[in-house]
Inverse folding.
């Protein structure tokens, strides 16, 4: 890391406050990042992270009293234009790139804006794009259409675009959320290169385990206040979680002995071409079976077959002792299989529709009264029951489900499936986009359900999640089950080493 | 009371009713003959055709689609009935052939809808393209079968359907009322109606939840086709003739009525009651302007302005609500 003591810090803010209609989003927060430093900005959703970034980039103006220095220069106000001139760039999670344009166009098109005459100089555009990628030590096909690239490479394109704009401080919003381990490693290499060339990088995330090692400091916000600035040396995800939520969490392994319980689901030699091969396991009544592995290991594909969305080519599935061949997910639901999708926004819930309608969608027959008509009263009663049972925090049942927080949305998804009275519940990455504090609540529900006899298959790419919450853990890689672990006999670092190897 | 009205019939209802009252008062004062029985009666006879066609357009839009073929499906059903009546003596045709014709007409409507629904659901083609293809097919077929002309000369009892009254209420209005009630129940109280709304918002998520999305789509377009057939039968009895292009101009007016009634153009949201009120507003506007001596084309222009005005009002109301919530 370059020497940060001589040069003025890239950013030194203090006494930053922001009030929205009476709600204090930020209260007297300081924030400092050295030039070339790799920094983490951590906090739960709603802690003020995004507000702070929007103040730094000039989207919002802070309340009076804020002191703002960028690269040693005191500024009375920041506009988006000033922020850009100072070399501040933000790479949002959605990347804001153009899928239909080529890599070169995406990287360098902004430099062509305002050209006179108004023609596009493709040679210059390619040269600039090539130079930006070279600064990152990355080679990409400049003529590839962006939409054809994997997310990880699109991220590199977004970084290169920031470099073309002479960025000296880059904020990256949840950069590793959708990356595999190898892709994350590649991203970290790019960040190291940037840092070595004096460009500061701020990771903004609530899931920081991967980036802690290359950052030097972490700033933690909670409820719009600064909790503290800590060196990352010796910082663990567990400690960080405590700082972000202000609560201590029990990281004790919950596993119980389940080998004597009756088998609920038995999978034998299940295969589907190009997805997974020869998968066999048993899932018992009242058991939480963890299934972990990297993205692309075939976990979700396996879940889709168990839920009847797709069909296996070989192998058998026995539910409660009877062989099942689901032609569709409707068959699976009728047989007692429920599936909580990893993509809550697009597949788990119908976001614009009401909480109430979402909660009963899978059990319309249950609220059908005489004459085959739906009973609004039966619907209200059912929704009230599950809202109480799962402690979902809602305004009105008629509000759009999109108005809820991630954790409460996931409770609505659970309610929807529990209402079908399933025997087997498949949870596919149930804590994606759910705050750390709210995750504990979700897992408390999961353990309660298991205690009542539900058989639960818990799929997660967070090894710590399955280690803590599952009774047994299956490791899937390259479409096969490659290992089974007992969390009581395997430590988390051992398990992580096996999965991330 | 307003809250109960909103919950039962949709949040659009109080505003639309207020607007209707405003329009009625304005015309009641300015147009001398507006509040007479004759004028209200003519509104009551004109409204049902457009109303039933609008119902046919409503559920495909709620399911996230569209049905451009409603007019030609209606007239094709009308032609079916006309052919049957002609086979059995035209003006002399008895009630038996009439009933047979009705059944076949409804069948033709259902078939046209089911064919579109099946292609949309199983081939995944866009509803606008599929219904456009059906519209052109039906128009061509209809013109071929009628050689581009009219068929007329039906038994006199058909006039009862088109022009009669029961207890002072026009028969077409009763028919429209029954259709509207059926659609209201379908959308609010049946599993298929519920599924149609959910599919309209997010087909994949609905399918993940165990909704038989494809079957629901086929059913939606089939029902839309049946509703078209009812409109076609009504048009036949009102005009005492059928031509394949009857009521062509109504196609986009049905879309206008849906959007005025607060139906979401992107699907997922829409209710029958506000759409019916919007239809009444449109009809009152046109008839009031007519009484004031305005040109028929001018009233069409006013309809367009009216839709723009309503959209601006809704935008304003949305902004106001957001401010009330206090946070940006």
């Amino acid at each position: 890391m370059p020497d940060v003591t001589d040069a003025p810090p890239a950013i030194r803010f203090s006494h930053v406050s922001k009030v929205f209609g009476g709600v204090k989003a930020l209260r007297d927060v300081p924030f400092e990042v050295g030039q070339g430093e790799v920094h983490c900005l951590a906090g739960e959703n709603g802690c003020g992270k995004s507000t702070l970034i929007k103040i730094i980039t000039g989207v919002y103006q802070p309340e009076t009293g804020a002191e703002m220095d960028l690269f040693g220069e005191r500024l009375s106000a920041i506009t988006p234009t000033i922020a850009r001139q100072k070399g501040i760039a933000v790479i949002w999670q959605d990347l804001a790139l153009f899928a239909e344009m080529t890599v070169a166009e995406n990287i360098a098109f902004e430099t062509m804006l305002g050209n006179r005459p108004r023609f596009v100089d493709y040679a210059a555009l390619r040269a600039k794009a090539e130079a930006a990628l070279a600064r990152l030590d990355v080679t990409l096909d400049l003529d590839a259409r962006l939409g054809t690239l994997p997310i990880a490479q699109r991220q590199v394109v977004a970084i290169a675009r920031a470099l073309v704009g002479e960025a000296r401080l880059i904020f990256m919003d949840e950069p590793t959320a959708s990356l595999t381990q190898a892709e994350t490693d590649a991203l970290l290499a790019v960040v190291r290169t940037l840092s070595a060339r004096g460009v500061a990088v701020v990771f903004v995330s609530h899931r920081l385990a991967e980036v802690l090692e290359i950052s030097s400091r972490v700033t933690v916000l909670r409820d719009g206040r600064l909790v503290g600035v800590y060196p990352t040396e010796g910082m663990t995800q567990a400690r960080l979680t405590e700082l972000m939520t202000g609560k201590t969490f029990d990281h004790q392994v919950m596993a119980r002995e389940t080998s004597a319980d009756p088998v609920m689901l038995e999978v034998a030699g299940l295969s589907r071409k190009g997805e997974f091969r020869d998968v066999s396991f048993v899932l018992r009544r009242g058991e939480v079976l963890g299934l972990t592995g990297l993205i692309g290991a075939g976990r979700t594909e396996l879940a889709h077959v168990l839920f009847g969305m797709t069909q296996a080519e070989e192998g058998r599935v026995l539910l409660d002792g009877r062989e099942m061949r689901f032609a569709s997910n409707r068959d699976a639901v009728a047989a007692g299989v429920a599936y909580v999708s990893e993509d809550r926004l697009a597949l788990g819930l119908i976001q614009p529709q009401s909480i109430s309608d979402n909660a009963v969608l899978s059990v319309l027959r249950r609220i059908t009264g005489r004459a085959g008509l739906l009973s609004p009263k039966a619907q209200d009663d059912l929704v009230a029951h599950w809202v109480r049972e799962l402690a979902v925090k809602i305004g009105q049942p008629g509000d759009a489900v999109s108005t809820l927080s991630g954790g409460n949305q996931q409770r609505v998804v659970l309610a929807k499936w529990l209402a079908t009275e399933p025997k087997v519940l498949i949870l596919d990455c149930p804590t994606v986009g759910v705050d750390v504090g709210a995750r504990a609540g979700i897992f408390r529900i999961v353990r309660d359900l298991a205690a009542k006899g539900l058989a639960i298959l818990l799929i997660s790419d967070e090894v710590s999640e399955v280690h803590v919450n599952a009774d047994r853990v299956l490791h899937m890689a390259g479409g096969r089950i490659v290992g089974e672990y007992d969390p009581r006999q395997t430590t988390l670092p051992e398990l992580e080493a096996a999965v991330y190897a | 009371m307003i809250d109960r009205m909103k919950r039962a019939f949709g949040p659009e209802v109080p505003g639309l009713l207020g607007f209707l009252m405003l329009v009625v008062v304005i015309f009641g004062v300015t147009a001398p003959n507006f509040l007479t029985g004759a004028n209200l009666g003519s509104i009551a006879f004109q409204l049902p055709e457009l109303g039933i066609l609008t119902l046919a357009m409503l559920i495909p839009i709620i399911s996230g689609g569209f049905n451009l073929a409603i007019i030609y499906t209606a007239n094709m059903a009308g032609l079916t009935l006309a052919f049957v009546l002609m086979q059995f003596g035209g003006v002399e045709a008895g009630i038996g052939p009439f009933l047979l014709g009705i059944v076949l007409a409804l069948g033709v409507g259902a078939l046209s809808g089911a064919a579109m629904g099946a292609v949309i659901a199983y081939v995944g083609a866009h509803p606008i393209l599929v219904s456009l293809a059906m519209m052109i097919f039906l128009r061509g077929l209809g013109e071929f079968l009628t050689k581009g002309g009219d068929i007329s000369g039906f038994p006199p009892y058909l006039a009862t359907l088109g022009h009669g009254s029961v207890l002072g209420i026009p028969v077409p209005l009763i028919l429209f009322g029954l259709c509207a009630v059926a659609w209201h129940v379908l959308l609010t109280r049946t599993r298929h109606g519920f599924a149609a709304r959910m599919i309209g918002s997010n087909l994949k998520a609905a399918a993940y939840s165990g909704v038989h999305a494809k079957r629901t789509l086929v059913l939606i377009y089939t029902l839309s086709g049946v509703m078209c057939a009812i409109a076609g039968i009504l048009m036949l009895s009102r005009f005492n003739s059928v031509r394949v292009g009857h009521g062509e101009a109504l196609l986009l007016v049905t879309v206008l009525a849906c959007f005025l009634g607060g139906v979401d153009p992107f699907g997922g949201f829409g209710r029958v009651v506000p759409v019916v009120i919007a239809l009444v507003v449109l009809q009152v506007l046109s008839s009031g302007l007519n009484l004031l001596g305005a040109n028929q084309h001018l009233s069409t222009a006013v309809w367009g302005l009216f839709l723009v005005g309503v959209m601006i009002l809704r935008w304003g109301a949305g902004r106001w609500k957001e401010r009330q919530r206090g946070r940006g």
About this structure: Residues 131 and 164 of chain A are 8 Å apart (CA to CA). Residues 181-196 of chain A form the longest helix (16 residues).
